[in-house]
Amino acid sequence: MEREGPTLESLTRRLAETPEDFLAEPRIGNRGSVRVEAVVNDLLQLLSAPAEARALTGFAGQDPARDRNRLAVTMLLCWLLADEWFASAHPTADQLLTLLVEMPTQLAPQVAAKKFVADPERREELARLVLARLGFRPGGETLAQAQDRLTSLSSTERTRVMQAARAAEQRARQIREALARKAAEESADKWARE
Description:
This protein is mainly α and 194 residues long. It has one domain (3-153). The chain contains nine helices and two strands. It is elongated, with a radius of gyration of 23 Å. The N and C termini lie far apart (71 Å).
């Protein structure tokens, strides 16, 4: 995130104005209307970063339950990356493919794709994640500001904190139960001695 990128407002506005075509159902088997591998290919061509056809096979889903949201997030990323600012940044095909594979895989289990359009915080999160993955920070922000805001918005970080809190609560419950058992045993022993 050493380099300064576009303003965050321009990217979040672009996400808020996502056309219906990019919100349509991804094609998985016989269901859905949008072939995500074709959308990814078009994006790579637009950004002058063509890839081999076999690199696009991962964008054709097999299991609707598992792949639908991941592919829907991929289409949103394609829409965001089609912004003319990214064309001027000249990302490589490897950078783009890595981003388009890893980010949806990470985000899809945690956030429904449509929230990245409808929810202002999720729009900001997605825009910040894309910039960070490509080595940029939002225009007008320092590196520290960009990192702090990205961490505070991160769905992954929020999930990690919630899991840690659940684990801590479970451990506290186990300790309380053990202390209650020990107190009951001590009370029974004391009563038996008297």
